[in-house]
Every structure is written in C-alpha cells, then in structure tokens.
Amino acid sequence: MCLDLEPYYEQDMTEIDMEDYPPYSFFKYTNPDDGHRYWVPKMNTHLLIYWNVEKFQEKDVDPLPSHYGPDNITWDDYEEVGMNFVKRGKPFEWGSIPAYGIGGFWFLDAHLSTYETSVADIKDLSRCRLGDPPAQEHMEWIRHQLWDTKMYGHAEEMGGIANTQLFASGRTAMLEMGPWNFGPVARAARFNWDLAPLPTGPQKYGGESRNKADSNGCAAWSGTPHPDAAWEVLKFLQSSTWHRGLARSSLKQPARLSVYPYYYQALRQFNPVFEDMNLEIMGEGVSKGLVWPETFFWPENDASLELLTPALQEIYVLGKKPTSYLIEIADQITELNRKAESG
Amino acid sequence: MNASKRMNWVIGWPVPKLHLTPRVLEAIGGYLFLLPWIVGFITLFGGPVIASLGLSLFRTDLLNEATFVGLQQYQILMGDPLVGKALFNTAYYSFVSVPLSTVMALSIAIILNQGIRFQGLWRTIYYIPSVVSGVAVSVLWMWLFQPDVGLLNALLAMVGIDGPRWIYSEEWAIPSMILMGLWGSGGSMLIFLAGLRNIPTALYEAAEIDGAGPFLRFWHITVPMLTPTILFSIVMGIIGSFQIFTQAYIMTSGGPNNATLTVILHLYNKAFKQFRMGYGAALAWVLFAILLILTLLTIRSSTWWVFYAGEKRL
Fold first, then answer.
1. Higher pLDDT residue, B65 or A52?
2. Whether the complex's predicted ipTM surpasses the cut of 0.85
3. CA of A309: which chain B residue's CA is closest?
4. Torsion of the alpha carbons at A269, A270, A275 and A278, rounded to the nearest 10
5. pLDDT tens-digit map of B16-32
6. Which residues of A294-308 are buried (b: 16+ CB within 10 A; e: fewer)?
7. Are A149 and A80 spatial neighbours (Cβ–Cβ below 8 Å)?
8. Could B147 and A313 be called an inter-chain contact, meaning their C-beta atoms sit closer than 8 Å?
9. From the list A91, A155, A310, which residue is nearest B149 (CB)?
C-alpha cells in the first residue's frame, strides 16, 4: 500500500542526515526481507511515569528517580510506592494507571522490554511471546496490581474517565503515559508533577532500565501517479524546520535527535510546570541505547488481535481466567501467523 | 404563421404544443416533484447499495487492485466465530428490547392520554432523550452504569441491593444496553399517542353504555385499534435495534470478551479498521437478508393480530 522510498533515500542520502534519527525510527515500516524503508519518521515517543510531586510530599514518599540506570526502582518498588496512595473509599484513589487500559499493546510492549521480551518476537514477528516465562511473570504482576493490591486503577472503577483526567484531578498519584499528553495534563493539573523512567526489570532478565519507542511516520500511497512529487513533500517533512514546527505546535517528542533541545525549550515556554521538570529523560533513554523498537504487531495482526483482546479482557477486566491462559492464546496466535506465512 | 400557432413560447424559445390529457399532465407534475428524491435515491442510496453487492464479491481495501473472489467472502463469514457471537448479541438485544420498549412507550402514551395537567410538558420531557445524540447518551449512561460510584448502583444500594457490574460484566452488558434503550422510548411514545388520539370516542361511549369497565375498554377497544401502530413500531424497532452500533462502540468497544460485539460493530471493525471492504459488504448483505426475513415474518403475522378499521375481509 505504501510507496517504496528506498530508491529516494539512496538518491538523497547526502541531503538527509540519517544519523539524526535513532535506529529504531524506521523499524515499523521497513520490509524485513529486503530492508527497504516505506516511511519518513515523524515522532518517536516513549512511555514515562508522570508523578504528582505534591502527593508524594504529602505522604512523605521518596521522589521517583529521574534517570535511567542502576538507581532506578524495580517493579516491586513501584508497587510499594503506589500502595501509599491507594484509597478504597468513594471515590477510589489509586497508585498508578497504565496507559490506555489493558488493551493498549504498546504499554504492554514497553513493560515487557524491562523483562528482555516483547509482545511479538523482534527476530520472528510471526511469534507471540506472551506465553514465554518472562512475559508470564510480568503479566501476572499486572493482574496482581489490578485484582489483588488494586494499586492500578481498574477500568470498571475508572468508569470511562480518561486516565489523564484522573491524574490531573489527583485521583491517581502516578500515570504511565507518553509525552503526547503533556499539553492536556499541564493545562488541567493544579499541582507540580514530574517525569520518571519505567521501573527496572528483575536481575535475571538483565535488571536494566529499558523502554520502547512508539514511532509515527508519514508515507506515500504506492498508487500515486506522482511519486517524485510525493517524495519532495516527504523530504520536506524530514527537514529541521518542519520538525521544530511540529515539536512546538504538538508538544510531542520529535523523531530527530537534534530537535530535542528545541523541544524542551518549547515545552518550558508553553507552561511554567515544565520549567523544573526532568524533560531531558526523554533524550537520555535514547542516548543510552535503552530504547527498543516496538514489537506488538504480527503479520496477521487483525486476526491475532481478535484472539488476544478478548483474552486480555477475560484476565484483566473480568478476572475470569488466570494469566497462564495467555500461553494457549500465544500459541494460537503464533500458529495463525505461521500458517499465513506458509501460504 | 401556422407553425407559430402550433408552438408555445417559453422564455423566447419555441416549444411544440402537446395535446396531453389532464391525467398525464398530473402524472408528469407528480414525477417532476418526485425527481429530486429519485435522483438522490439513485445516486446516494440505490447506486451504493448495488455497488456494495458487487463489492461483496471482491477482496479489496478500495485503495489497491480488487480481486474477484466470487462468494468466498460469504464462505469466510460463515466460518467466522465472531459473526455468530455478533448475531447472537444483536438478536438478544433486539428480541428483548423491542417488546420492552413497545410496552414502555405504550404505557407512557396511555398515561399521557388521560388528560393530565401539563401534558405538553410531559410529552416533551419523555421525547427529549430520543433527540439527544447517541454519543452524548452513551457517555451519560457510562457514568450511570459506573459500578462503584454510579447513580444506578447508588439507588440500588439505598434499598439494600448490591448492584451488578453493568457494562463491565459479560452477563449484564447487553441488559445494560437494553435498559439504556428504554430511556429513548419517547419516539415510539409520540406515535402511540397519535394513534390513541385517532380512536373514535364513540367506541368508548358505546362500550361504557354496554357496561364495559376500564380494563375491558382497553383490551377490546384501545389495543385492537392500536394494532396497526404497534405493528409499525415493532417493524421499525426490529430494523433499528439490529443496527445498534453507537452504544457498543462508545461504551464498550464490543467488550468485555466480545459480550457487546454487535453485527454493525463487527462490520465496522472489518471494513473500516481492517479495510476488508468486501467482507464488510458481505456482512451488510447478510444483515439485510436477516432484516428482510424478520420484517416479512412480522408483516405476515400481522394478518392474525392487526385490526384495520377500514379493511374489508372477504
């Protein structure tokens, strides 16, 4: 469906500073067979933890770490921190809320990166890894937070209210969210908040701070009668001018590394809440090589999601099935994709 | 000169004189008035309907080249477990909500027809929900259904009932939507009210003289005289309820565990999220066939229970 841009990249390689893009920027729209690229990167956003500084001070809880690295908290520490804020009265208050509920595969993929795994296998995208022991371990941790500790806000308790609104109104002390919601939260929240990296996975899985990049990009339709003109537009969409404009107007994390300082400045000019905020953490994950490409899609993605989404709901929304149910579902997804691959 | 006499002159142009009968002229006038609708119907409705039948025979995303696959989309559809689930959910919703909302609308109409004070105000109050946007209604009901702080469970708690989890429960998700649908019974209520007003008062007076009480008058006069309106309400209700989409899309996205996946939501997912336009078109035609059968069965059954005052039965 998308125009093969590889000949154009080859032709204009000197004009475009390819080093300015983190390596994962092209992953999602690169043909694994021949390495041809099909889009120009627009944004690369990472999952962060927004945390309410004033709530932490009120409860005398230590601030969350501001850097990726050995001083970062683990998932168990995260639970412990979150439990300080859980209130089972009406209305409920929670320690944290995962981004986009349990069906948000990108959030799962970012979590699983800290367990050295992913939703789909990066080396063999037809394989679903949710049945693997590391994934099982973390998926059970999520179930435990939703159903046992109630540290995480459950969809039922949130009652359709957006997680950003719940954070901005103080109903949750932490929120797992990307930079694309900086603007709405900054406008709505009447307190100081800051940013922290995702917790570190267990030692047996490397014990490293990691993250995933949610990459967006622009492509041209393969059927266009004017491919050269389309490339000219796409080339402009890679210019520093356009990326700066996008960073300022959308307040979203740019794809080009050289635009990051400008992006931080734009945020600080936009709202005073960003002045003392640890914005540089977004660039830190990239520069330390801790950000991996997202892998939560399969060749037969729609059919796979038709199996996976209800399964996740049975475990996390309804509490009817154990996490181990995903072993069976992961096998079905892998089989489905393998069958499609073999024609 | 003679040629000029045989012509009519319209804005300076000669138009031949036609000797048309008044009946033909009337028919031409009628068709001219109908023309805007006919053109609109053919271009905006009839054309796309026929095109969708053709589309269902192809595998296409409408962007790339389409492949003719004959009836394959219908074959795939038969083997899709989600189609069965969606049909079951939709039928469950329709077969419970249509009778309930008919009874509800009729009951409100009868109460409002008793000559109560501020009748216009009450009528407006009951009618308002049916003109509110489906999205707004869905968002409002999400709050009402909220299991822990929602109004419904708070009211149930006041009488000592531990309310269900409503749209977050597989068992209660469709009943929740049925309950929500009852809130919009105002549209049918208005039609029933008009039907009630059309019943000649002489019939009631005669029955009263013959000694019929309120229940007998209702059962032997009101109900039979309203059966054409009830038939209309049921047919429209079945068609409308089989097309349920907004509530399922906004409130639950078809979950939990596909408990609210309806036919139109499944069609939307396939056609507009997965770009399987041929499959979506095939599903639309299956839905059309089901609706056609149900409508024909309902109309066919009407010979046994619908009473037309002006009908001559041989």
1. A52
2. no
3. B257
4. -120
5. 777 788 888 899 999 99
6. bbbbbebbebbbbbb
7. no
8. no
9. A91
- Residue-wise over B213-222: b if at least 16 C-beta within 10 A, else e? eeeebeeebb
Contacts 24+ apart (CB under 8 A), B270-275: B273/A302, B274/A302, B275/B61, B275/B62, B275/B63
| Alpha-carbon distances of A261 from A193, A213, A239, rounded to whole Å | 20, 18, 16
| Residues on chain B touching A221 (C-beta within 8 angstroms) | 63
**Distances A62 to A54, A59, A66, A172 between C-alpha atoms, Å:** 11, 9, 12, 16
The answer for residues whose C-beta is within 8 angstroms of residue A267's C-beta and 6 or more apart is A182, A251, A274, A277, A279
Q: Are strands B7-10 and A291-293 parallel, antiparallel or unpaired?
A: unpaired
H-helix or E-strand spanning residue B110: helix B81-112
Task: Tell whether the torsion through CA atoms of B89, B90, B95 and B98 is positive or negative.
Answer: positive
Contacts for B250 with CB less than 8 Å, ≥ 6 apart: B134, B135, B138, B139, B142
Give pLDDT tens digits for B265-278. Answer: 999 999 998 899 99
Running DSSP on this structure, what letter comes out for residue B71?
T
What is the spatial distance between Cα A111 and Cα B44, in angstroms, rounded to a whole number? Answer: 48
Q: Read off the amino acid at residue B297.
A: L
What is the pLDDT at residue A100? Answer: 63
Name the one residue in this structure whose structure tokens are 């249509």. B98
Tell me the β-bridge partners of A200: A74
Distance CA A101, CA A107 (A): 9
Looking at chain B from residue 23 to 82, which residues have their Cβ under 8 Å from any Cβ of chain A? 61, 63-64, 82
Question: A71 near A65, Cβ under 8 Å?
Answer: yes
Question: In the numeric block, which tokens belong to residue A264?
Answer: 């931080």
Q: What confidence category does residue B115 fall into, taking pLDDT thresholds of 50, 70 and 90?
A: confident
Map residue B167 onto helix, strand or coil. helix
Give bridge partners of residue A98 from the DSSP assignment. none
Q: How far is B61 from B277, CA to CA, in rounded Å?
A: 6
